[in-house]
């Protein structure tokens, strides 16, 4: 009997050990699933992005080195398309237009956005109403913005026509039809759409400044203008850099706003590199030159984003 009881005790201990091992295995399996489930969920999107974004970037780079015309072909020509591209006066016109558009777009978007952010940072009573009003344009697509501004600036149905109907018959505003001034109408529409978004970035930066620093400056007798100019704005350098990178990226790849407002005209007065790329790739049957212009645009964007990311990573490591 003692031997049987002892054997039964060993059996129960063995069963408990087996149950414990099974429980540990289930827990390990559950933990592994918790670790792998997010990766499994994200993996389809990751592979789609890998193929349809980075894969096609590489394919575009390859096409820029071939003699592709209306359809892709694989006759290797090296950098010949890039040489032809920089010899085209249309490409130089697009680059000049981009320089004007990007510089004014970034300057006025940052200036207006910062001004609106400083206004809202004064804790004005209507902040809850004004903030969504300022942000609303960014919720629209550039096609909608371009169409609305095209109607507004059209001399036949827009602002000029309205002024004439109100009795101001001498009023004239034909910038959108003027080859010398049309690019500035694009700037106006783009700034209108983006300045609210820049305002939100600056407002977040202003609200993140340590109040103790501001109070110390006020105790020392610094005026509000001095506090903003000497203390707050210098502390917002990362926000300025972020705004510059985002706006520069938007400027370089601007396409739909121009298509909706002017179609690149009058003539080529508002043609930007993205419009040039589309025209040569799909309308003029010069796919190789169109692909090379797309790669130049990509290099422009990389030349802005890569130094920014490098400075951010270096700043994080130094902290």
Structure notes:
With 319 residues, the protein is an all-alpha fold. It has 2 domains: 63 residues; 231 residues, MetI-like fold. 76% of the residues lie in helices and 0% in strands. It contains 13 helices and no strands. Helix 2 packs across helix 13. The longest helix has 62 residues. The chain is extended, with a radius of gyration of 30 Å. The model has no long low-confidence stretch (mean pLDDT 86). InterPro entries: ABC_transporter_permease, MetI-like, MetI-like_sf. It is found in: Cell membrane. Its main location: membrane. It is a multi-pass membrane protein. One of its GO terms (cellular component) is plasma membrane.
Structure keywords:
single chain; 319 residues; mainly alpha; MetI-like fold; 0% strand; extended; membrane; MetI-like
Layout: helices, strands, pairs:
Elements: H1 2-63, H2 80-87, H3 89-120, H4 127-135, H5 142-153, H6 159-165, H7 182-207, H8 211-219, H9 224-235, H10 237-252, H11 256-261, H12 273-283, H13 287-318
């Amino acid at each position: 009997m003692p031997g049987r009881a002892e054997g039964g005790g060993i059996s129960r201990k063995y069963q408990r050990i087996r149950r414990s091992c099974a429980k540990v295995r289930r827990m390990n399996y559950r933990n592994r699933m918790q670790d792998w489930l997010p990766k499994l969920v994200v993996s389809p999107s990751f592979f789609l992005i890998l193929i349809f974004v980075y894969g096609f970037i590489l394919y575009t780079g390859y096409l820029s080195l071939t003699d592709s015309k209306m359809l892709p072909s694989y006759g290797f020509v090296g950098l010949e398309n890039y040489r032809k591209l920089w010899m085209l006066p249309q490409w130089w016109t697009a680059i000049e237009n981009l320089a004007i558009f990007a510089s004014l777009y970034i300057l006025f978007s940052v200036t207006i956005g910062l001004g609106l952010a400083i206004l809202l940072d004064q804790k004005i009573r209507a902040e809850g109403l004004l903030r969504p009003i300022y942000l609303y344009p960014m919720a629209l697509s550039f096609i909608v913005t371009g169409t609305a501004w095209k109607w507004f600036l059209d001399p036949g149905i827009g602002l000029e026509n309205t002024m004439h109907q109100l009795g101001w018959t001498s009023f004239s505003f034909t910038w959108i039809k003027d080859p010398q001034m049309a690019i500035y109408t694009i700037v106006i529409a783009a700034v209108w759409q983006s300045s609210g978004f820049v305002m939100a970035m600056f407002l977040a930066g202003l609200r993140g400044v340590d109040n103790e620093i501001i109070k110390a400056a006020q105790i020392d007798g610094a005026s509000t203008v001095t506090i903003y100019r000497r203390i707050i704005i210098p502390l917002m350098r990362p926000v300025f850099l972020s705004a510059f990178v985002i706006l520069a990226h938007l400027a370089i790849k601007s396409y739909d706003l121009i298509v909706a407002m002017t179609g690149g005209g009058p003539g080529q007065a508002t043609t930007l590199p993205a419009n040039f790329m589309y025209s040569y790739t799909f309308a003029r049957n010069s796919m190789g030159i169109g692909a090379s212009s797309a790669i130049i645009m990509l290099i422009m964007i990389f030349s802005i984003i890569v130094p920014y990311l490098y400075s951010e990573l270096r700043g994080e490591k130094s902290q």
